[in-house]
Structure formats: structure tokens, C-alpha cells
Amino acid sequence: MSKNTIPFINCTDPYHTLQCYNDFMYVYVNGKIVHAREAFISVFDHGFLYGDGIYETLRVYDGAVFKLAEHLIRLFRSASLIGLSIPLNIDHLKIAIYETLIANALRNAYVRLTVSRGKGSIGLDPDLCPEPTIVIFAQEFKEYPKEFYKNGIHLIISATRRNYKKAVSPQIKSLNFLNNILAKMEAKKKNALEAVMLNVHGKLTEGSVSNIFFYKERTLCTPSLECGILDGITRGMIIDLALREGIQVNKGQFTKKDMYSAEEVFITNTTMEVMPVSQVDDQRYIVGNGAKFLRTIYQQEVKAYIAEVKAKGPSLWAENE
Ligand code: PMP
Q1: Ligand 1 atom closest to Cα of 170?
Q2: Are residues 258 and 128 in the same domain?
Q3: Atom 8 in ligand 1: which residue has the minimum CA distance?
Q4: How far is the CA of 321 from the centre of ligand 1 (A)?
């Protein structure tokens, strides 16, 4: 079947169609690659029943998975924080991801790797689930609209607070996403793309799927991990790149007033990379040189990384050519 005839369904997001799936994709489910229409997990899976599990989102550029090791290390850290033992090691997971990409003939893709507690009787005890469920799917990467990068996007500060870090730590990249979903729903109601949550102390944390940054008095500011955020892989790279370029970085505790009075605001994640913000609530910002510069050097870093991965060969993506 040619790609053009694949019916894309479930595209309800007016901003972006990243999440579209189709029945003709191949999905990795517990060691096997099957058609999406045959890719099932049990209704007794504790990931489905209780949100008991973890995941990673990865981006593939020209056949090479960006920062694969970093994402898998974070996956294993999330697993360890919920006492989940993943039955595959890092190398096996790398192979499973590349096999999924090859099966779908994808070179520029979005990959979602999910590990749930697995199938078990009703009850919260993880010991009810003898075997975790592992699912990997990959879809062609759909670029965000160019206007988002040119003109910036609209954020709100949500009334929904970020999970208290001593309750469900935001460092666990968990399937239990209701906190973020509630914030995102608030954003959608106000025609904003992303919602920034405060923590229980009223300090800025992060977006529903992104980390936040702002420039103030020539310093790049971002909430510290202590505020209760996911340590985004893109965030880490942006901090390192900024420091390398001699930009002062302040990882701290900030209020929404600090962000309102900033000169520039942007958000980061694996799929958006660096996305400028033109509005937070009623406060407007220019899409300035600070965010543009960091986006450019981030993209240069991506290119260099991909070239380095490919130069290492022998390559799995070669089978895809
Ligand atoms: N915070 C949250 C809550 C997220 O879901 C994400 C997306 N994974 C991020 C931050 C950004 O993380 P990364 O840069 O690793 O994609």
C-alpha cells in the first residue's frame, strides 16, 4: 500500500497531527512486531487500569534516534522509581526501537516506548503482575506549523498545580498523566497551546509536555529540578549549550511575575525542540534573538549528533535505504 493511501484517523488536535495513528502501521508488542490492528494489550493491564507504568517519547532524524541512550537511561530511572523491573536491557530496547522503525520504513519519526506493569488481577499490588508489557510504536514525524516558530505560541498559567514531588514525583515519566491532561484542557479552553503549572508553593514548574525558559536581564532562567519538574533531555541540552556560549543560566525558583516581566519566553521538548512563546496569559513577548539563537545551535547539535551516530556504523538504518 502506498503511503498516500494510508487513511489517517483520530486527528482531532487543530494545532498538530503528531498523534495520528493508522491501522497499517507496525507496532512492537512484547517482542513481536504486528499490524496496529492486531496490536492489543489486556484490559487487565495495570497500565490501563491504574496508569501504572512509564514511557519515553523519542525523535528520529534521518534514520537515527536522537539521544537514544539518554532516553533509555531516563526510562530505567523512571522504572526504578516505581520499582518496575524492565525485562529487556538497554541494548535490547535499542534494537527493538530500530526494528520498529525499519518495519515502518521511517527515517523521520516520532517514537513512543511504553512499559506498563503488565496484566494482573484487580488490586494495586504490583506483584499481581508477573510480566511488564512493552509497546513501541513509531509514526512519521509531522513538523509543527512554521508560524509557531516564527510568531511564537500562546501559553497560560493553569489553575491546575503540578503534582507535589513527594506525592507523585514529576521525575517519573509515568503513564499517570491526568495532572498534565487537566492543565492541557485549561489551555485548550483558552486557545493556548500549552499550560504552565505552578507547584504547591506557587513557584513555576513546567508545561504539560514541555520545560520552560525565559530571558531576564540577559540571564537565561529556568525552574530548578527542586521545583518538581521532569529533567527534560532538551532542557539539559539547552542549559549546556547556553553555558558553552557564555550565557548566564539561573536554575531557580521563580514566580509567574518573574515570567510575566521577562523579555523572552520559550519552551522545550524532544519534538518541539525550542519553541518561542509570544503570550503567557495576557502578557505579550517578542520572538527575540535569544530563543532564535538557542534554536539554531540546538539544531546544529542535532545535526552533529546524527552525523556522529551514523559515522559509528554498521548501521541499522542502512537496511531502510
Ligand atoms: N516536562 C514534561 C511533563 C514532559 O512530558 C516533557 C516531554 N517529555 C518534558 C518536560 C520535556 O522533556 P524532553 O525534553 O525530554 O522531551
Answers
A1: 3
A2: no
A3: 209
A4: 31
Rounded Cα–Cα distance for residues 273 and 232 (Å): 11
Q: Known catalytic residue: 3? A: no
CATH assignment at residue 87: 3.30.470.10
| Ligand 1 atom nearest residue 270's Cα | 16
Asked if 298 and 252 count as a contact pair (C-beta separation under 8 A), the reply is no
Catalytic residue among 67, 119, 165, 173: 173
Pocket of ligand 1 (CB under 6 A): 57, 180, 206, 209-211, 230, 232-235, 268-270
Q: Does residue 66 sit in the same domain as residue 162?
A: no
The three cell numbers of residue 135 are 509497546
| Number of domain units in the chain | 2
Residue 316's pLDDT is 54
Task: Tell me whether the omega of the peptide bond preceding residue 276 falls within 30 degrees of 0, making it cis.
Answer: no
Q: What is the pLDDT of residues 153-172, one digit of tens each?
A: 999 999 999 999 999 999 99
Residue 80 shares a structural domain with residue 156: no
pLDDT tens-digit map of 290-319: 999 999 999 999 999 999 988 886 555 444
Beta partners for residue 198, in sequence order: 204
Q: Percent of the chain having pLDDT more than 90? A: 88
Q: Across-strand partners of 27? A: 34, 137
Distance 300 CA to ligand 1 centre (A): 21
Check residue 135 and give its pLDDT: 98
